[in-house]
Each structure stands twice: as structure tokens, then as C-alpha cells.
Amino acid sequence: MSRKIRQPQKIFKVFCEGGTEHHYIDELRRQKKLSITLKLVNMEGGGYRNFLEQVRADGTTNCLAKFIIIDGDRAISEEGEKKNLDELLKYCILQNKNGRIPHFLIVNDPDFEYLACLHTPRYNGQNAAQYLLRELGYKSIDAFKADKKVYHVLNTNGNSYEQMLSQLKSENCFVINKYSINKKQYEMKVSTTYDWEKLGRKASNMNEFFEVINDFHT
Predict the structure, then answer these.
(1) Phi-psi region for residue 161, left (φ > 0), alpha (ψ -120 to 50) or beta?
(2) How many C-beta atoms surround the C-beta of residue 49 within 10 A?
(3) Is the Cβ–Cβ distance between 109 and 200 less than 8 Å?
(4) 218: burial class by Cβ within 10 Å (0-12, 13-18, 19+)?
(5) For 54-94, what is each residue's pLDDT tens digit?
(6) Cα 74 to Cα 83, 110, 199, distances in angstroms
(7) Using an 8 Å Cβ cutoff, are 217 and 34 in contact?
(8) What's the whole-model pTM score?
(9) What secondary structure letter does DSSP report for 110?
(10) pLDDT tens, 9-60?
(11) Alpha carbon 162 to chain centroid distance?
(12) Alpha helix (H) ranges present in 98-149?
């Protein structure tokens, strides 16, 4: 009897900054037993361009999709970053149009601190930094960013990512990725739309990350 050939495991690749996003997604991966590989990107000295260079250089073997998770505030506050964001966005769009590995650009606007606040039922648009210190007990924003248990903090005591997802408003999103999934063939098709006039509004398309991951693991 011939030995059954074991198929290599398909994975999602997540590109994110070090710190909060990494700690959060890393623990989410462990808790939910998700097939995710984290790719840390150093933003110093290159910003969004560093993301583009690392995504370009990264391989695609056994990859289901790439998620590029960034904060949107740099495109508004730092000179030249809007152009770099545009290049990253257009690269992702080109990959999706060519039917290659799907690239989901996820923009948290203004930043992940805002998404963290949305995990709590008490948040109502207050200053995110002040809210995290007052309501969640962090001594500083640096302490929040360095907390390896941030996923636990944001998903216990009435806080949850379900709460966060319920508060997101797609009409304010700078980027939206529409997708279809063929689970049997491990295939996805993605089309991306964007609106520069919405950059700077409080919004995120982070729901796409959770939806896609959930669809492939259920």
C-alpha cells in the first residue's frame, strides 16, 4: 500500500509593527490555534516603504494570503508617508488584480490604540491615549505598547474583539477589500477599493482579518 503524501500546511502571513499588534496577534494565534506566521516590520527610517520592501521580498510558498496591518496616522503626520502608503496600496492592488497571493491591506486609523479602546463597552470616542491610561490602568502609552498580555487585557472583564468589530463603521474606511473564498481549493479572489478623502477618519477594516481567518478555520 502506497504511503499517503502529507500536504504542506497552508498559512496566513501577517506583517505588522513590533509591539502592540505583534503581542495581540501572537496571543490570538495561540488561543485560537490559527495557522499564522507573524512578520515584524521595523518602521524606523522607512515607514510604509519598509512594509512594501519586506512584503515584496517575502516568499509565497504555502501562503494563503498576506495581511499588511498598519496605522494610518503616519500618512497624515509625516512628510512623504502619504506617497509611500500610495505605493504600498497600489502594490497590493496589483497583486490582487493579477490573481496572485491575496494581499489585504488593513489600515487602523488613526492607530491600534483606537482599536484597543473599541474593545471596551465604555468607550465613546474619548481621547484614546487618555482612555487607555484611565480605564485600563496603564501607566503610559509605552507601557501599553510593551504589554505582552495586551490580548488578555482586551478580551476579559467584558472587553472583547467582538465588541470592537461591532463598533467598526465601514463607511469611514480608507481601504476596503472585497473577497470571495473557495475553501476546497484554498483560493481567494480580492478586489480593493480606497478613498483618500476618508484617510484620517476614525475607522478600520480590521474586520476583514477576523472574517477571513474565521472562514478558513471553521
Answers:
(1) alpha
(2) 17
(3) yes
(4) exposed
(5) 999 999 999 999 999 999 999 999 999 999 999 999 999 99
(6) 11, 8, 11
(7) yes
(8) 0.93
(9) S
(10) 789 999 998 789 999 999 999 999 999 999 999 888 789 999 999 999 999 9
(11) 15
(12) 112-118, 128-136, 141-146
Q: How many residues does the chain have?
A: 218
CB distance 70 to 77 below 8 Å: no
> 517575502: which residue's cell?
58
Instruction: Quote the cell numbers at residue 174.
Output: 480608507
Closest to 192 measured CA to CA, from 14, 40, 66, 25: 66
Residues 6+ apart with CB under 8 A from 55: 15, 66, 68, 88, 91, 92, 103
Q: Which amino acid is at 200?
A: G
